[in-house]
Amino acid sequence: MPADHCPTGAEAVDRLLGGGLETDSLTEIYGEGGTGKTVFCLAVTCRVARTGRWVFYIDTEGVSADRLTATAGEDREAVLSHLLLSSPKSLDEQGRAVATACTLAREGKRPVGLIVLDSATHYYRLARPDAVEDEARQALALQIADLVATALGVGVPVLFTNQVYRSMREGTIEPLGGSFLNHAAKTILRFDRGSGDRRRTVLLKHRSLPEGSAEFRITPSGVA
C-alpha cells in the first residue's frame, strides 16, 4: 500500500479509497445506527495498533469492552498496550480529549498512527437548539480545526463518525454539523445497511478520486 495511506483491512473499501485512509487529512463516516461505523473504527484501530503505533480513540458512544476485545482477537494484549481510550461525558470534555490527542501526536514522543473521534456530534446534538447550539457549533468547530491542523502537520490520519438526521424537505438522510464538517473532511463516506452482515459504503467526496461505492462485511473480528 502507498506510504501516504492507512489501510482499513476491508479490501474493497481500501480499493475504493486508493489504498486506505489518507494520512494528512480527516475522513468522515456517517450513516444511521447499525450501519457499522463503530465496528469499522475499531477494526482500523486494531489494525494500526498491531503495527506498534499508538491509537488515540475518543469514544462518546459507549464502546463495549467485549466488542473491543472481540475485534482485537488473539492480539488483544498488543492492541490494548497501544491504545489510549478516552470516554468524555460532555462537549467540553470531548474538547480536552481532542486537545490531548493532538498534543501527543505533535510531540512525537509516541508514534501516533491514528486518531479516532466516535462520534464527533453526539454531544453537539444534545446541545441543540437555539443559542446553545451556536456555542456548541463553535466549540466543535475549534476541535475539528485542531484535528485538521494535526493531520496536516504531522501526517496522522483522523477518522471521525457523524450522526445523521432526516431532511424533511429533501426526504434524505443527512449528516449533522453543517457545512464546516463537510468542508473539514477531505474524504466523506456514507455507510448503508445491506442484507445480513453486509454493508455498503458510498464515497461522496475525495480530493483525487471519483465517487463510487463498495461492499464490506461485518465479522466477529471486525470487517472484511
Describe the structure.
This protein is 39% helix and 29% strand. By secondary structure, the protein is of the alpha/beta class. It has a single domain (5-223), classed as P-loop containing nucleotide triphosphate hydrolases (Rossmann fold, 3-Layer(aba) Sandwich). It has a nine-stranded mixed sheet, with helices on both faces. The protein has a two-stranded antiparallel ribbon with strand order 1-2. A hairpin with a 2-residue loop joins strand 12 and strand 13 (222-223). Helix 5 runs parallel beside helix 7. The protein is globular and about 45 Å long.
Task: Set down the secondary structure blueprint.
Layout: E1 5-6, H1 11-16, E2 21-22, E3 26-30, H2 37-50, E4 54-59, H3 65-72, H4 76-80, E5 83-86, H5 91-107, E6 112-118, H6 122-127, H7 130-154, E7 158-162, E8 164-167, E9 172-175, H8 179-184, E10 185-193, E11 198-205, E12 212-219, E13 222-223
Helix pairs in contact: 2-3, 5-7
Task: Identify the notable features of this structure and list them briefly.
13 strands, 9-stranded mixed β-sheet, two-stranded antiparallel sheet, Rossmann fold, 224 residues, alpha/beta, single chain, 29% strand, 8 helices
Binned, the helix content reads 25-40%
Strand order within the widest sheet? 5-4-6-7-3-10-11-12-13
Supply the number of structural domains: 1
Q: Secondary-structure element sequence?
A: EHEEHEHHEHEHHEEEHEEEE
Question: How many individual helices?
Answer: 8
Relevant CATH superfamily: P-loop containing nucleotide triphosphate hydrolases
Our measurement of the CA-to-CA distance between the termini, rounded to an integer number of angstroms, reads 17 Å
What would you call the structural class?
alpha/beta
Shape: globular
> What is the C-level CATH assignment?
Alpha Beta
Task: Count all strands and give the number.
Answer: 13
- Please give the CATH architecture: 3-Layer(aba) Sandwich
Rg estimate, integer Å: 16 Å
User: What would the CATH topology be?
Assistant: Rossmann fold
